[in-house]
Amino acid sequence: MTTSRAPSHLPHPARVANPVLALLMLLALAAATGLGFVALAPNRLLEGQPLPLWRLAGTLPAPLLVAAAACAALLVAAAFAPRGRPASAAAAASRMPAASRMPRRQVVVAAAAAALLALMLALAGDAAARLVREALTPLARVSLGAGFWVIVLALVLALADALQRLRLGAAARVAASAAALLPALGVAASGALGELSLAREYANRPDVFWQAFAAHLEIVAAALLPTLAIGWPLGAAAFHSERVARPLLAALSVVQTVPALALFGLLIAPLAALGLPGVGRLPAVIALVMYSLLPVVQSTAAGLAQVPAAPVEAAAAMGMTPRQVFWQVRVALALPLLVAGLRVCTVQAIGLAVLAALIGAGGLGALVFQGLFGTAMDLVLLGVLPVVALALVADAALRLVAAGLAPLAP
Question: For residues 379 and 306, what is the distance between their CA atoms, to the nearest angstrom?
Fold first, then answer.
């Protein structure tokens, strides 16, 4: 019995070149057509009327719209255009140097996503300026709508996906990410967003914002220093003794299951019994230290355990003492994982420090909860966006440090 085979000359079924990018572009298109790009409200407290991008298109600058459409077309083409090439071209490409075979499609995607991100900001700023001028009340506010944030999220994910596919090193990826965000930062720094409600919230309280920003950094730094001073020795103890590791990690895991607000409340009575304030920065720092210990202890114990036996035995054979072997061999080779634990607890502390505002510790969380209690969502964003930026910057910086230490690892 023979089986029939399709003729070889028939074309293969069409395939999406980049399903991730295709899905993101479809999501952005749905947001542009079905969700509000900006929202016009009579004042900062009332909910605004959402205005989709297609309704604003007739009043927005044509050059910006044409540029945005061109960037969107490039992204759609990169998502759906076939990736096939003739056999002769593929054979020639295989003989090219690796640097010459960089996937240009991903470079185009990254550049188009970065440009479109800046153009979305420029369009939102222009729409806000026009709507405020035409408003019947001087108290009118224009906020960024759900459609804008969905489009921005899709573009950021498309940019991250393109940089991931380029297979860049850690330093090159951070540099490429920073370069991709420069156009958007340039739009923001140019004052084009000045009529947006978010920018006006900042303009009304710049001193308050920077004081909250500095307080947030102080809380995080005050929590990280004792976390490392306690966590690294505990991690080393967990590495040396299984009897220490099991109860220690179990106790720290239990702490992670306690909600942050509950932990703040549980600290009030013990601190009051010791004559210490139960609210303010002290309980906030203590709670952040308790939450941050688990990733530091785990990464320290895992980093010390993953050091191969060969360099340890070689160091001992050379006459090094156990203390010298530990510090000069084990710790040196475990540094990348130690920094990885520091990265995790730093990002976690930056986020959890927002909740510390509920017990009077201050920080950017004060702006967040002030906006929530006053139903001023742009004030909430004024507190949230810097927290996100801080977490991303800290994550990127510590990734660079870990990548620089990676050559020391086995």
Answer: 46
What tokens were used for 377? Answer: 């969502």
> How far is 132 from 196, CA to CA, in rounded Å?
9
Distance CA 374, CA 337 (A): 43
For the stretch 183-231, pLDDT in tens is 999 999 998 999 999 999 999 989 999 999 999 999 999 999 999 999 9
Decide if pLDDT at 90 tops 70: no
pLDDT, tens only, 233-285: 999 999 988 898 999 999 999 988 888 888 888 888 888 888 888 888 999 99
H-helix or E-strand containing 332?
helix 331-352
Q: How far apart are CA 42 and CA 139, in angstroms?
A: 6
- Provide the 10 A C-beta neighbour count for residue 305: 13
Q: Rounded to an integer, what distance in angstroms lies between the CA atom of residue 36 and that of residue 33?
A: 8
Whether 280 and 247 share a structural domain:
yes
Domain final residue, candidates 158, 193, 228: 193
Neighbours of 109 (CB within 10 A): 25
Domain CATH for 332: 1.10.3720.10
Q: What are the helix and strand counts (H, E) for the chain?
A: 18, 3
Count of other CB atoms within 10 angstroms of residue 351: 16
Task: Report strand pairing: 49-52 vs 141-144.
Answer: unpaired
Do 178 and 217 have their domain in common? no
Task: Measure the N-to-C terminal CA separation of the chain; round to a whole number of Å.
Answer: 56
How many Å apart are CA 156 and CA 150, to the nearest integer?
A: 10
Which DSSP letter does residue 328 get? I
User: What is the helix (H) or strand (E) element at residue 309, kind and residue range?
Assistant: helix 309-317
- Residues contacting residue 164 through CB under 8 Å, at least 6 positions apart: none
Place of tokens 């945005």: 68
| Residue 92, token pair as written in the block | 């020639």
Cα–Cα distance measured from residue 285 to residue 28, given in angstroms and rounded to the nearest whole number: 40
Q: What are the structure tokens assigned to 240, written together?
A: 């040396």
What is the tally of structural domains in the chain? 2
